[in-house]
């Protein structure tokens, strides 16, 4: 299992203080909620992350800030004072796009049932979702309802579970096909770019995606999302097996720069991970074992963290006992090395030989162990 960017975007918003004149407001009226009820917002603007929170007073809240264009946001409402994390993962959460607008979000009871007024961007987003068959969150909610519609006996039946999963995967595939068509049909729409970015996925089919990307407007290419997709397309070639690994330098846990080039002469596993990535953490014991087996023979691991909170990053390194090199710029999914390598899901890895050539891609577990044994035991 990998954790995909779309699924965990909510985790990756570091704090940034607003220093510019506000050009948007998000005002809400959710019933008659009062303290300890609290609203939280995280949003991306031009590759930079922001967050804020406020206590509700008679159901009302208001956020203001400055955006350069269209931004993607997550808003969570904590009804009972359980805190942000509980609200995000088990509570009342919505995801949406907005722009330089004065937006009103209103509902009698929850964000989940809220309506938006005053936002042209949100209206375009809603129309886009209607065209492609709904959001990922809506499809996930639907598959949960599909599963729960079965009897207790059915829910224990592998054939029933497989049928539910098949329907879900077919819906996802159909959605991706509609997204790709939407991108072709709307080369000047921001949501055409969103559609192409999402449907392209972590492993880009360059022959299919690049012509559609090139047909998008120059204005869309200039956005941070456009630049990221361009990097992902380029990474398909520059990180292929047989290519020279793209060189990079990033700071370690002490703030000292570490470069991939400085490790030439060693076999290096460039490992992308994060403290919040459970599949990454599950693989760490195996990496520790392999590192200890071959470190004296010229093996090194260079872990690039997609964390954005340094304390979490350092704690995970200590808890898992990871003795190798670690770097991060603490920009989450906007980690510069991650973008250079086209990483959209973690764990992700690239095995680099002593001359700097990529000889393995996505190796973990037994396939990684077998490859290292071939290298160091011959």
Explained architecture:
The chain has 378 residues and is an alpha+beta fold. Helix content is 40%, strand content 24%. It contains 14 helices and 17 strands. The strands form 5 sheets. A 5-stranded mixed sheet has the order 14-13-12-16-17, with helices on one face. A 4-stranded mixed sheet has the order 5-2-8-9, covered by helices on one side. Strands 4-3-6-7 form a 4-stranded antiparallel sheet. The two termini are 32 Å apart. Residues 6-18 have low confidence and may be disordered.
Low-confidence blocks of residues = 6-18
Give the CATH topology of the largest domain.
Glutaredoxin
The CATH superfamily of the largest domain appears as Glutaredoxin
| Discrete helix count | 14
Helix content: 40-55%
Query: DSSP strand (E) fraction?
Result: 15-25%
**Could you tell me the number of beta strands?**
17
Major sheet: arrangement of strands = 14-13-12-16-17
Distance between the termini: 32 Å
Name the structural class.
alpha+beta
CATH architecture type of the largest domain? 3-Layer(aba) Sandwich
Mean of pLDDT: 93
Shape: globular
Helix and strand arrangement:
Layout: E1 3-4, H1 5-8, E2 24-30, E3 38-45, E4 48-55, E5 60-65, E6 71-78, H2 84-90, E7 92-98, E8 102-107, E9 115-117, H3 120-132, H4 136-148, H5 152-155, H6 158-185, H7 190-200, H8 206-215, H9 218-221, H10 224-238, E10 249-251, E11 257-259, E12 267-273, H11 278-294, E13 299-305, H12 310-320, E14 325-327, H13 336-340, E15 345-346, E16 348-352, E17 358-361, H14 366-376
Parallel strand pairs: 2-8, 12-13, 13-14
Antiparallel strand pairs: 1-15, 2-5, 3-4, 3-6, 6-7, 8-9, 10-11, 12-16, 16-17
Helix pairs in contact: 4-6, 6-7, 8-10
């Amino acid at each position: 299992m990998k954790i995909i960017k779309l699924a965990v975007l909510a985790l990756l918003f570091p704090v940034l203080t607003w220093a510019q004149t506000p050009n948007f407001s998000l005002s809400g009226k959710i019933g008659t909620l009062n303290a300890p009820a609290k609203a939280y917002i995280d949003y991306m603007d031009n590759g930079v992350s922001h967050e804020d929170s406020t206590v509700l007073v008679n159901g009302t809240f208001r956020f203001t800030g400055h955006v350069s264009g269209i931004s993607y946001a997550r808003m969570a409402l904590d009804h009972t004072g359980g805190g942000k994390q509980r609200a995000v993962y088990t509570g009342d959460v919505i995801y949406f796009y907005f722009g330089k607008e004065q937006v009103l979000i209103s509902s009698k009871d929850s964000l989940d049932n809220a309506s938006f007024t005053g936002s042209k961007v949100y209206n375009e987003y809603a129309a886009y979702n209607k065209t492609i068959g709904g959001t990922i969150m809506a499809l996930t909610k639907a598959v949960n309802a599909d599963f729960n519609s079965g009897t207790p006996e059915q829910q224990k039946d592998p054939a029933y579970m497989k049928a539910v999963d098949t329907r879900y995967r077919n819906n996802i595939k159909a959605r991706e096909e509609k997204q790709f068509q939407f991108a072709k049909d709307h080369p000047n729409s921001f949501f055409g770019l969103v559609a192409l970015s999402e449907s392209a996925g972590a492993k880009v089919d360059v022959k299919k995606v690049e012509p559609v990307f090139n047909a998008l407007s120059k204005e869309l290419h200039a956005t941070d999302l456009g630049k990221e997709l361009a990097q992902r397309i380029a990474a398909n070639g520059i990180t292929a097996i047989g290519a020279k690994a793209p060189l990079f330098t990033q700071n370690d846990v002490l703030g000292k720069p570490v470069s991939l080039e400085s490790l030439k002469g060693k076999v290096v596993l460039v490992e992308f991970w994060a403290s919040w990535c459970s599949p990454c953490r599950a693989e760490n014991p195996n990496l520790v074992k392999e590192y200890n087996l071959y470190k004296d023979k010229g093996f090194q691991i260079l872990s690039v963290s997609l964390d954005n909170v340094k304390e979490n990053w350092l704690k995970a390194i200590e808890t898992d006992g990871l003795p190798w090199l670690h770097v991060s710029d603490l920009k989450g999914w906007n980690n510069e090395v991650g973008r250079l390598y086209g990483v959209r899901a973690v764990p992700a890895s690239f095995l680099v030989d002593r001359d700097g050539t990529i000889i393995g891609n996505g190796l973990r577990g037994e396939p990684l162990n077998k490859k290292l044994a071939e290298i160091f035991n011959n």
